[in-house]
Amino acid sequence: MTSTQVSAVVRCAPPADDAAHVEARREGELVERAKRGDLDAYELLVRQHERFAYRMAYAIVRDAGDAEEATQDAFLKAYRALARFRRGAPFRPWLSKIVINEARSRRRKSVRVSAIAARAIANEPGVNAHDSADAAAIFAEQRNVLTAAIDRLPERSRDVVTCRYLLELSEEETAAALGIRPGTVKSRLSRALAKLEAELSEP
Question: Please, what are the domains in the chain?
Fold first, then answer.
């Protein structure tokens, strides 16, 4: 399997574009209200980001219960840390860093880590109705082999692949979430894809 094929199987879709300016402004207003103690405003923020946060946690811990607990703890810690949130900064990368830290902590403690389940990625690319059952089975097998290979990567490589491709974060969002520079994202991603290509090319 070539690096192009690896990327094609890993990618669910190209990384999403930045949110519209009006949405960013609205989110900023919610954050400011939440910082002043408005719980309803924070509840709206939670609703906007809880699905994404759960997907991120699940992709790291590989367990539904651990992912749910990590997500809940992350939102609680985020609320307590809102006073340190920089006004005007995007909320999702800041929240992502907290979610990743919580998920990593649970992953290290958990004895139930297993291969990535198909449901780990809510945006799993589907198979069109006209596709054959054989094609669906082949895709599923390729996906399972690839995600198992990702799971065997070192933690730093696994996390950058998870953020960049499985969770569709941009390079900047990935860098913010992992607390590294965008250039480091590129270099780690390049090495990770090369390692995946080498492993998946073996007979």
Answer: 3-115+131-201 (1.10.1740.10)
